[in-house]
Amino acid sequence: MKEITLADVERAIQSIADTALRNEKYFSELDSAAGDADFGVSLASGFRVVQKDWDQLDRSSIGAFLLKISMIISRNVGGCSGPIWGTGFMRAAALSRDKTSITLDELEKMLTAAIEGIQQRGGAVAGDKTLLDALIPVRDKIKEYVGRDDADPGEVLREAAAVATDAIERTRDWVAKRGRQSFTGERSIGSPDPGIVAVATMLNDLCKAVGVEPVSKAS
Amino acid sequence: MKEITLADVERAIQSIADTALRNEKYFSELDSAAGDADFGVSLASGFRVVQKDWDQLDRSSIGAFLLKISMIISRNVGGCSGPIWGTGFMRAAALSRDKTSITLDELEKMLTAAIEGIQQRGGAVAGDKTLLDALIPVRDKIKEYVGRDDADPGEVLREAAAVATDAIERTRDWVAKRGRQSFTGERSIGSPDPGIVAVATMLNDLCKAVGVEPVSKAS
Amino acid sequence: MKKFVNDPANFVPEMLEGVALANPELLRYKPEYNIIYRADRPRDDKVSIVQGSGSGHEPAHIMAVGPGMLDAASPGNVFSAPPMEFCYECIKLMNSPKGVLVLINNYQGDRMNWDMAVEMAQAEGINVKSFVIDDDVAVQDSTHTVGRRGVAGNFFVIKACGAAAEKGASLDDLLKLAAKVNSQVRTMGIALTSCTPPAKGTPIFEIGPDEMEVGVGIHGEPGRRRDKLKSADAIVDELFDAVYNDLPFKSGDRVAVMINGLGGTPISELYILYRRAAQRCKEKGLTIVRNYVGEYCTSLEMAGASLTLLRLDNELEELLAAPAEIAVRVF
Amino acid sequence: MKKFVNDPANFVPEMLEGVALANPELLRYKPEYNIIYRADRPRDDKVSIVQGSGSGHEPAHIMAVGPGMLDAASPGNVFSAPPMEFCYECIKLMNSPKGVLVLINNYQGDRMNWDMAVEMAQAEGINVKSFVIDDDVAVQDSTHTVGRRGVAGNFFVIKACGAAAEKGASLDDLLKLAAKVNSQVRTMGIALTSCTPPAKGTPIFEIGPDEMEVGVGIHGEPGRRRDKLKSADAIVDELFDAVYNDLPFKSGDRVAVMINGLGGTPISELYILYRRAAQRCKEKGLTIVRNYVGEYCTSLEMAGASLTLLRLDNELEELLAAPAEIAVRVF
Ligand SMILES: Nc1ncnc2c1ncn2[C@@H]1O[C@H](COP(=O)(O)OP(=O)(O)O)[C@@H](O)[C@H]1O
Ligand SMILES: Nc1ncnc2c1ncn2[C@@H]1O[C@H](COP(=O)(O)OP(=O)(O)O)[C@@H](O)[C@H]1O
Ligand SMILES: [Mg+2]
Ligand SMILES: [Mg+2]
Ligand SMILES: [Mg+2]
Ligand SMILES: [Mg+2]
């Protein structure tokens, strides 16, 4: 499969930022079911700055670009999301420091590094009903395509979005064990995790942004 | 017309107390239209004690009895109603100090003294949309019967209750110029004065208490 | 009714008992007459200062009893002036050869009950005089009314007279001082929500989700007008202009500024209001010598606030700065 | 949304500006990082004490900055932990050779942001350490959670450490002291209404007109259970028993009692709650050495309250009694 260029990464981030801003209220409402209703606001406060500073961002490499994103987020996002998303982007940046294009294999390694960073930062593991339960299946799905030269980027993205979307319903009846939701114990059962919904929505929106028809829409 | 005895006065006060307690919430709601919603509570807090102390009240004369009522009210009733009703009963008591029965003429004079006392205490005059605008017509109506030996007590009471009841609608569109209501200026237009409604309700209930069919019910 | 309450009929007595229990050294409580008073009062060498209005305005007035403030307070039921006898007993309890000063907020019920009580006490030879506070600019003095209402400005009259009394001022000095403060203080309030007297159990007035009551009274009396909710800055501007122009204040004045919460508004919002008030003072050339942001005279759980401006001079600045100690430390 | 607010996005900065304007001598304001700090800090001979959590809990924490309390606070948005960089800049600004103590309330967001900031600061050679407060007994420590929440008990950790720091205590002494206070303080709260974050514009949870949330979190997190509204005494009894039995306290203990209003509950009701709490302490043989009735750690305009008990000894009694001076005088 042809390599992923800085331009591709830029477009992905731009699409992710759009999703975060468009869904500011919606994501906060999801967080009010069992959490404290600030997830959307927190996320948006970071990606709003990403959009504002868009033209000045360092584009010398994919890593340099992602590091800037990481810094903007840790600088501007409070709550759990700042450290979690900031750490994720930082770890991904570290593996692409001097690259202007990456292979699917490298993308998978970057995702894995991000996942591990988030786990160290917040102590969450798979099954705690956090965005990790969307990121991990996405990473696994991508792994399936690694090394297959015939892999169609659109298909990989579509399938990644699909597993993230599935995670919403799959985890809905789990008990949240991290973040504010976790304080409500059993109360979190039945309401989808805002972070998982956000990841799924971002991937589905990215599909559309690059002209790929997603398998299904995020609820 | 036969004289009004201490027993008659006692029954009247008992009926008035019943009315005050039965309408505690209702009178307060009337007071909330343009006032501060405490009229019913204030009135009830006084007449509740009247009922409690009922058996120990001094009954050596009508005046002694009414003086006790006056003291209980000034002691226990706050807001405007304590001074106003307390002063009214006090003045009426002064004119019946050593009487065990009174003529209609004397009753009229006692009412007049009460009205004057209330006017001195609170500075209100006829037309200020206060209970005076019920008491004054009642006094005038009674005056019409003074000296008429054929006057039927039941008829006098019925007619008195009728003019008090009329006062409710007659004054409804006036501007309140005393008490908390007055602060709302034009806002008081259209809502009946709680004090006037109270006087009318008490007289109509008294009719029923003594087996007289009132002309009309107080709204 | 979303309140912490047992039998609504005991709302006031149980609150007073709580205040007494919380201040065992400072305060005493006379349940028969709702009187909260200083454990070390009255004293022969100091004028006693007392007040009593309806309850529901806490910390006014029972939580303003203490050194440098009130010597005693006897509140009535929620929003209802205390019965004459409470007032009378309060005056008698605080009787001092130097005299007793009664500070009355200008409401007909308060005036009638205290006037009767003062007459009775004077008839018994007690040296007691009263002063009526009326700082609310929302309701204009007219034939319609018994005059302006006494609201948050009352705090400054208490604080100044309380401080002066501690220094040994005479009863007549205090009457002059009260008149001076009252003549230089102006207030206007605004309500965002209604409030529910415990005994009534329902809101005292209806107000739409997008409405505010401009010039509301501290008993929920309707104010100047009902209007659509505005921004915090726009609201402060209206209150500020009404207050500023009424005295009127003028460039160069030294002032105390109070943003008083009506009970349900969190202090975070009060500081947002203060921010704008401070900007407006600067614009107008007023120097803020002291500021008061918090709850001073409330209406139960009503969401809303009032803005008070007091023109200062050296005498008043000294008195406001004097130490005081009360259940809620708000000065 | 019945609030005094301009652009909701400016709710926190405008509040902070108001606090700074209201305390020109005492406080300074760094808008870039939401930092409110003492004008006379840092000082080489005193450990700096800082805190920063979500906003919406005022007076915690920004109005607890001043002599004898915090040296600086850097809040985040309403109910959202401050971004790591705010925390980092706050630590740097208060850097002192004697060290910097970070008091963290136990929420994942607060912990992650402050942990990152502390690591960064330490990497730069700053002598900074943090302590985590978790006094809420409503949420049991379990695999479900990151542990108990830090709520109103936080005030006592600040007050004790603040007083000790003024007396020159070392960073390690303060860590021990914080641990001691935290180990002896317990809190549980109850909500009668929800609250509305300005940026959200709608209530954070739904609650029926006759319901209460027992064990609510200060961010509106649901608590132990939803129940029918009970009498004030019954509510205090449940909070008291939960708190008393958790430590557990025992007959003969000397304690500080706090009745903390959650923002929308008027102080009159808080004293009704205190009345019952004082009765229960007496029953149980607890001696109340100090009491705190008012707002210390709120949830915007939420109607509700929390009850806190702190076991005292001579050291803590002295520290609580030590003078302090902050924007809202609540100690
Ligand atoms: N420890 C953690 N590890 C990974 N993700 C987490 C963790 N805690 C929370 N999250 C994710 O963050 C989301 C909540 O973010 P946000 O509301 O900003 O945090 P907070 O809980 O501080 O309010 C959750 O839906 C969850 O997916
Ligand atoms: N100055 C007055 N003179 C005569 N009656 C009055 C006066 N002020 C008020 N009232 C009567 O009292 C009623 C209100 O009583 P109440 O609510 O107890 O007094 P407040 O205005 O103190 O709340 C009014 O409806 C009016 O009829
Ligand atoms: Mg959240
Ligand atoms: Mg009334
Ligand atoms: Mg009244
Ligand atoms: Mg949060």
Q: Order of strands in the sheet with the most strands of chain A?
A: 1-2
The percentage helix of chain A is 55-70%
Strand content of chain A: under 5%
* Cα Rg of chain C: 19 Å
What ligands does this structure carry? Answer: adenosine-5'-diphosphate, magnesium ion
Spatial shape of chain A: globular
Tell me how many strands of chain A there are: 2
Please identify the structural class of chain A as seen in this structure. mainly alpha
Q: For the CA atoms, what is the radius of gyration of chain A?
A: 16 Å
> What are the low-pLDDT stretches of chain A, counting only 5+ consecutive residues below 50?
none
In short:
Chain A is mainly α.
Mind explaining what this structure looks like?
The complex is a heterotetramer, with 2 copies of chain A (219 residues) and 2 copies of chain C (331 residues). Chain A has 219 residues and is mainly alpha-helical. Chain A has 9 helices and 2 strands; from the N terminus they run βαααααβαααα. The chains are: A mainly alpha (219), C alpha/beta (331). One magnesium ion (MG) sits between chains A (36, 38, 79, 180) and D (79-80, 109). One adenosine-5'-diphosphate (ADP) sits between chains B (31, 35-36, 38-39, 42, 79-81, 84, 118, 122-124, 130-132, 178-180, 193-196) and C (81, 108-109).
Secondary-structure topology with pairs:
The complex is a heterotetramer, with two copies of chain A (219 residues) and two copies of chain C (331 residues).
Chain A: E1 4-5, H1 6-22, H2 24-34, H3 39-52, H4 62-76, H5 81-94, E2 101-102, H6 104-122, H7 132-145, H8 153-172, H9 194-209
Antiparallel strand pairs in A: 1-2
Helix pairs in contact in A: 1-2, 1-3, 1-9, 2-3, 2-9, 3-4, 4-5, 5-6, 6-7, 7-8, 7-9, 8-9
Chain C: H1 11-22, E1 27-30, E2 35-38, E3 48-51, E4 72-73, H2 84-93, E5 100-105, H3 108-123, E6 128-133, H4 154-166, H5 171-184, E7 185-191, E8 211-214, E9 225-228, H6 232-246, E10 254-261, H7 267-283, E11 287-294, E12 304-311, H8 314-321
Parallel strand pairs in C: 3-4, 3-5, 5-6, 10-11
Antiparallel strand pairs in C: 1-2, 2-4, 7-8, 7-12, 8-9, 10-12
Helix pairs in contact in C: 2-3, 4-5, 6-7
